Amino acid sequence: MLFAVTMDVALPQDMESDLRADTLAREKAYSQDLQRAGEWVSIWRCVGQYSNLSIFDVRDNERLHEILWNLPLFPFMTIQVTPLAQHPSDIAAG
Ligand SMILES: O=C(O)CC1=CCC(=O)O1
């Protein structure tokens, strides 16, 4: 199942710098592990915003929820999920 997910990040201004660096490093490693596994298909920066637009390919809603819930940055994110269906004009779909 394909999902488009927008993640808006808002870190506290007074977040301690070591905690901030550790959280961002864990977020990157977590994301890249899931990219290597094929579940996190792509990640794009939204221009001019501390936000990303990502595509996930996961078995079901519960798996996407598990992935998002365990993001190290989850407590500092506003997340919007859009389930995707095939478009009838997509030439790649045949
Ligand atoms: O968009 C960001 O910077 C937050 C994020 C999600 C996965 C990642 O590596 O960074």
UniProtKB/TrEMBL annotation:
Q: What's the family?
A: Belongs to the muconolactone Delta-isomerase family.
Q: What is its EC number?
A: 5.3.3.4
Asked if Ubl conjugation is a keyword of the record, the answer is no
The organism's lineage is:
Bacteria, Bacillati, Actinomycetota, Actinomycetes, Mycobacteriales
Q: Which Gene3D superfamilies match?
A: Dimeric alpha+beta barrel
Q: Where is the Muconolactone isomerase domain?
A: 1-90
Span of the secretion signal? Answer: none
User: What is the superkingdom listed in this entry's lineage?
Assistant: Bacteria
Task: Give UniProt keywords alphabetically.
Answer: Aromatic hydrocarbons catabolism, Isomerase
Record-linked InterPro entries: Dimeric_a/b-barrel (IPR011008), MLI_dom (IPR026029), Muconolactone_d_Isoase (IPR003464)
Task: Indicate the transmembrane segments per the record.
Answer: none
Q: How does it assemble?
A: Homodecamer.
Name the UniProt record assigns to this protein: Muconolactone Delta-isomerase
User: Which reaction(s) are listed as its catalytic activity?
Assistant: (S)-muconolactone = (4,5-dihydro-5-oxofuran-2-yl)-acetate
Organism of origin: Williamsia maris
To which pathway does this protein belong?
Aromatic compound metabolism; beta-ketoadipate pathway; 5-oxo-4,5-dihydro-2-furylacetate from catechol: step 3/3
